[in-house]
Amino acid sequence: MSQQKIPATVITGFLGAGKTTMIRNLLSNTGGKKIALIINEFGDLGVDGDVLKGCGAENCTEDDIIELTNGCICCTVADDFIPTMTKLLERAQRPDHIVIETSGLALPQPLVAAFNWPDIRSEVTVDGVITVVDSAAVAAGRFADDHDAVDARRADDASLDHESPIEELFEDQLTCADLIVLNKTDLLDGKGLSRVRHEVASRIARKPAMIEARNGEVPASVLLCLAIGAEEDIGNRKSHDGLEHEDGTPHDHAGFESLVVGLGA
């Protein structure tokens, strides 16, 4: 009997949108599923990784958290992401679900395309792409809580090979999404939330599901059960950066070193 494919969920969104908080909530409510978590962050300190390692979830131990720390995941698909996935799949105890948190600079489309690599495609499917939106920022006419912080991350990433304006990055995140989480809705009134919904919907031709959240609280049954198979639908997830490899071949980005975290007791 052939082995069932492992579902993977890609979570994207700008710095400050609430991705890490949402994932921390998720890890506490997965109903016992064993989760492998890949975090794409970079800089001197892996803050997101430290936060998630400290959440104490038995179904996602420190050995199950893999950090890619030196650059944008979409720029290192062949050199970093694919080898990381291969090592993960070679483990004796395979995860029930893989969750990938991208950096705010990542273009999600080439990452999803990477799941069409033969060694990955046969074993993993993209359950769905989830984009977390900072509703308060959008209501205030911004795309992220702190545009300067996003620009600083961009300047720090020597491996970044796309210079997409923040507005285009935002639209790429929305266009690739199967589920859009409008986070921080507790900071808005009804009219403000309506404006955010209209603003987000007006930027994409696709019509992904859109839900509201406070403090990143979304049921695991929603986040992990989309069953989309997003890697089969690359052509409808257009990127401003022109990386639409419909044959599943990822964009040829420069590589960076990855750090696989497996801290013992």
Short account of what is shown:
The protein has about 260 residues and is α/β, with parallel strands linked by helices.
What do you see in this structure?
- The protein contains 10 helices and 7 strands.
- Strand 2 (35-40), helix 2 and strand 3 form a beta-alpha-beta unit.
- The protein has a 7-stranded parallel sheet, sandwiched between helices.
- It starts with 5 loop residues before the first strand and ends in a 42-residue tail after the last helix.
- Helix content is 31%, strand content 16%.
- It has one domain: 3-Layer(aba) Sandwich (Rossmann fold).
- By secondary structure, the protein is of the alpha/beta class.
CATH topology call = Rossmann fold
Q: Which word captures the global form?
A: globular
Helix content: 25-40%
Q: What is the arithmetic mean of pLDDT?
A: 79
Low-pLDDT stretches are 42-47, 243-265
Helix-strand topology string? EHEHEHEHHEHHHEHEH
Gap between N and C termini: 37 Å
What is the assigned CATH homologous superfamily?
P-loop containing nucleotide triphosphate hydrolases
Backbone CA Rg: 17 Å
Instruction: Assign the CATH architecture.
Output: 3-Layer(aba) Sandwich
User: Helix/strand/pairing class, anyone?
Assistant: alpha/beta
Count every helix, treating DSSP H or I runs of 4 or more residues as helices: 10
Determine the strand fraction and express it as a percent band. 15-25%
